[in-house]
Amino acid sequence: MPDKPDLDGAYALASQDAIRDLYADWADSYDAAFAAARGYALHSHVAAAFVARGGSGPVLDVGAGTGLVGEVLVEHGVGPVDGMDLSQEMLTVAAGKGVYGRLFAGDILGTLDVSVGAYQGVVSAGTFTLGHVGPDALLEVVRVLAPGGLACLSVNASHWEAAGFGAVMAGLAGQVADVQERACRIYAEGAEHDHAEDRGVILSFRRL
Hints:
Layout: H1 7-11, H2 16-26, H3 30-38, H4 42-52, E1 59-62, H5 68-75, E2 81-85, H6 88-95, E3 103-105, E4 119-128, H7 138-144, E5 145-156, H8 157-163, H9 165-171, E6 176-185, E7 199-207
Helix pairs in contact: 4-5
């Protein structure tokens, strides 16, 4: 792991323990040193897509981190919003923003401490990406969605192809409907850094 947390270090992670360690170190500086400084915009795209498709609460923010998605959802009048993340340190920062109900540590690659069909919405920005979470976690997203509930998730475009998200979604055909995929920028226009032109896919679907 690098001495100073950064995006390339995050993309190179290979275990859940390494992810916890990196984000524990990054939590206090993440919003200013990464999100604001680099023009990170993915959280806004996810929240806007959820609202545009008529998403409603209660919502679970998967990989909530410091609460960037939750902040935008609340600005749009969506709630209540709960959040989960692998990193308790990131959740501590999110709690200070006062936009979440329940915040809890968990691993979306396993089974969350959440009842079947507990949420009308699931959102996620920046979690389904290189070195983090692959398409197998979509099964848990579907499990916690109520029938008719809407999921709106960002996936790094390179990760989408390499990890086989399309094939997993095809396998969920009997459980989900109204699937949409839309390309988006991860960073704002005018950002100037090595990843400024990186792209994502906004994946949305409803639970049958």
